[in-house]
């Protein structure tokens, strides 16, 4: 199946790119390794939204409803390619090792508090978004968990999302469950379950890490078998159970 869609895609790629960048030509419901890793040009919808069709439509509906309650669901980040994630990874790795003087392992552990190894981000899937309330004026970082707490600028946003997001099939991924391991609590990161659940399933079925070790990722020599096992268990799979 993969080979068939590859042939189909490569045959039309140049034409497709000249008409509509990011067009998807295959209707194949199977997710390829490239797509799961953010290396495929997938069709994305909505200016400043950039999600797969069904996720986009659900987001627009949710945004309308939030508007009527005085909240502006503003996307800070949605689709991100492998290459974009690789650039983030490299910048943080160099920052931590060269400027902050951490050991390579410590540098990686620090990065994976909030950021992923390139090829393993849920933002590669066109289903996940980082959102805030665009009506609030913010000083400093907008993706700061404290700002979503009581008395913070995104308190109402959080309340609204707690009550309504699931109605639109969006679920918080990295919850504040104290027993959860992996990425830290991200009150801004939501996932459109009807697509991201089957994508995660496919992700688990494929040997993504074999491919990742073949990519040109800075610091990858530190990805030992034990490290990767922990990363999969904690960072990939220890998420909101609604998304498994
Ligand atoms: Zn995110």
UniProtKB/TrEMBL annotation:
Q: Which CDD domains match?
A: DD-carboxypeptidase_like
> Which segments constitute the D-alanyl-D-alanine carboxypeptidase-like core domain?
49-194
The UniProt entry, under Gene3D superfamilies, shows:
3.30.1380.10
| Superkingdom of source | Bacteria
- Protein name (Swiss-Prot/TrEMBL): M15 family metallopeptidase
Species of provenance: Arenibacter antarcticus
Q: What is the lineage of its organism?
A: Bacteria, Pseudomonadati, Bacteroidota, Flavobacteriia, Flavobacteriales
């Amino acid at each position: 199946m993969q080979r068939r869609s590859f042939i189909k895609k490569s045959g039309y790629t140049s034409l497709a790119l000249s008409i509509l960048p990011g067009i998807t030509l295959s209707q194949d419901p199977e997710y390829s390794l490239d797509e799961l890793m953010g290396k495929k040009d997938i069709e994305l919808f909505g200016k400043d939204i950039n999600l797969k069709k069904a996720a986009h439509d659900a987001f627009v509906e949710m945004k309308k409803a939030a508007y009527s309650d005085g909240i502006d669901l503003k996307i800070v980040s949605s689709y991100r390619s492998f290459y974009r994630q690789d650039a983030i990874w490299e910048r943080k790795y160099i920052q931590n090792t060269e400027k902050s003087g951490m050991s390579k392992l410590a540098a990686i552990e620090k990065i994976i508090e909030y950021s992923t190894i390139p090829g393993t981000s849920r933002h590669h899937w066109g289903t996940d978004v980082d959102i805030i309330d665009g009506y609030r004026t913010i000083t400093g970082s907008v993706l700061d968990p404290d700002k979503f707490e009581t008395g913070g600028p995104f308190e109402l946003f959080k309340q609204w999302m707690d009550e309504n997001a699931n109605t639109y099939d969006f679920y918080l991924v990295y919850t504040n469950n104290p027993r959860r391991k992996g990425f830290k609590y991200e009150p801004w990161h939501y996932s459109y379950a009807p697509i991201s659940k089957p994508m995660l399933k496919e992700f688990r079925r494929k040997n993504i890490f074999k491919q990742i070790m073949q990519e040109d990722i800075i610091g990858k020599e530190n990805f030992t078998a034990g490290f990767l096992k922990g990363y999969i268990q904690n960072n990939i799979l220890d998420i909101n159970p609604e998304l498994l």
